[in-house]
């Protein structure tokens, strides 16, 4: 009985496999003419680089807000780098000199350079100080045109940050004839134009503020 089982079992397995369609198909499959590949496919590459007609704006877009003013000024100074020092020894994102830092109550340059929060506080404090020094000039000259540029409060404060409040006073009161340049040769008139029209109205003028 066991001998017949040994012969019969493989036959049953083969019969089951054939019934489910497992087998060899020797019939040649025809490929439609439209799908046949008769040679290498030619790949076309663009002959010219894509040129964007509109400039890219890095998010977030801050517009003419106070934060927009800060970031625009920081980009001009250091490309927004908190941890940089330039060839003249100016420090941080907004490029403060040692003398200005000490005037505002900061005496440790290393700590300042490695503390972004402190740098933001120093920037705002110095802005309040410059706004106090230039309060009369802001009231007198905002809206007037000097050297073809309308004077705005933000333009005055940006120029004061970059060239000193005293030099901005001289520029305004001389109607633009005393146009002092910074260490890189950029004049006050450039700063007044570059940073005009930002909203810095909420900055409170303070006399001799300190951190």
TrEMBL record:
Keywords: Membrane, Transmembrane, Transmembrane helix. InterPro entries: Lysozyme-like_dom_sf (IPR023346). This is Peptidoglycan-binding protein LysM. The chain crosses the membrane at residues 7-24. It comes from Arenibacter nanhaiticus.
